[in-house]
Design brief:
It contains 14 helices and 16 strands. The strands form five sheets. Strands 3, 6, 7, 8 and 9 form a five-stranded mixed β-sheet that branches. It has a five-stranded antiparallel β-sheet with strand order 12-16-15-14-13. Strands 1-2 form a two-stranded antiparallel sheet. The chain has about 575 residues and is of the alpha+beta class. The chain is globular.
Amino acid sequence: MPDTVEFAERPDAPRSHITLRLIAQDPSVTGDDGRILTAQVKVPWSRIEDGPRGARLHVVDYDVAVDEYRKHPALVNEDAYAEASDEVLLTDKTFHAQQVYGAAAKTLATFESALGRRLSWSFAGHHLYLVPHAFAEANAYYSWEDRAVLFGYVPAEDEDDPPVYTCLSYDIIVHETTHAILDGLRRRFLEPGLPDQAAFHEGFADIVALLSVFSMRPVVEQALGRPGRNGRITRMHVHPDRLKAGVLTSVAEQVGRVLTQGRGPLRHSAMEPPPANWALLPQFAEPHRRGEVLVAVVLDVLVDIWSARLETLFSRPGNTASATVDRARAAEEGAKAAAQLLTMLIRGLDYLPPVEFEFADLLDAVLLADVEVVPDDDLGYRRLLIERFAQAGITRPRNRVSNVLEAEVAPQYLGINHAALRSDRDEVFRFLWQNALRLDVPTRYYTTVESVLPSQRIGPDGLIVAESVATYVQMAEMTAAELETISELPLPDGLDPETPVQLFGGGTLVFDQFGRLKLHVYKKVDDWRRQLRRIGYLDLSGRRDRAKRLGYSDGSARGQAFAELHDTNLSSGEAW
């Protein structure tokens, strides 16, 4: 029988956070003592009811396979599982509830801290449901229709062994929670778009999962290997090549095995720079393979940042190539590097256009956002990003960003309520309409302002950068023949001219704390070359709706998009 745990009384006074013991990566990963590797994770405090159920997350433990519902006790400040055995962690369903709640809450807090505001889900509701034992299947996915992240499990073949639970893998919880968060931030990224857009959700979720795991020091310490008796490791242990080929690869491969439920590690291609002509190769049209390009680039940047931080530890007078460093200190530098890089990437999400995503947009957005918070790139992080993306053939796009403060013709604010620009979609639309010619926004297409969100980010100097970020979307519907006529460009080979097509454009408006427009990041709806490229890709990949139209949907239910995506990927043995 497994050990039992006792739950402390709920304290009267709230704290800024609670500390929970969580499985740091996956039950198969062990520490120096041979036990499951765990970490103490700080989770923002919230009044938590039984379930557990907080302000934004609600654990609903219903197992459809056996028609069983369990309501677990609320989380308290004193962790009941601080000293629990491995057997308890593996078999206690209440700990499973703590694992999914804690990891999801930490992920949401990471995004909110980086973006400087509370985030909303894409659906109408305040709670994201977390279902730790949803079904007896080797899968886990975010479902918009269910407002939930559903975790499956694989029943044990031997009655003496516990089932394999996806809800115990920190990687999977972060990955799926990221899908839910991204859907709230850029809901149109799930609609049929360019090939990079289809790859972004999976690639970015993998990146957040990897960097979140790597930002926990116990994980990095284990990846660095056993230290000497004095707790130190040699300089060769942290050489950039060793970090990439050994430490980082081992963590990524462990994550990959979890994400495929044992069907195979993260493909080696995600650990190496893509070929120079990757964008022209047919295998890179597949979303998961294409998403690995982003993963490979970001992991290279992580090694660069970590190596630079470690170099300062060896630059003291008298140090030689055989110098040693405390393993815990080296791991701490790696965890800090991962956390800093993750924050940079998340901050850039606000500066993305709302539609028609391409990898170059992410690079541009991350750089734009970082300049606002850290004007001086003293540590060279932006330079490293530019160099590594360039090595993958990804450079900053041209003619997609207007620095309005430096424009020759300033926007017109006559009759505009500056305060309302921080929260009112109608006021932002009024501003957009009044300045359509100045911002080169065509008014003959359907246009709607979809979001107006405040942001307060704190820079390393302690200064607060206050902004408001608004997004607008433009749409046009026509036949392929009409698109050919208006663009004066040939249609993709084999496309029926009578095919109905839906086209998207739009932009992101960044206002300063006084309501003055700073930046306009846009994808023009009348960029006909991009539109034809998108329609050609959708036609070639068969992404039509049930009426055989292009650009409307891909024919699957929106809430099941990730379930189908993961099922397809699992069947091929690839990482999510």
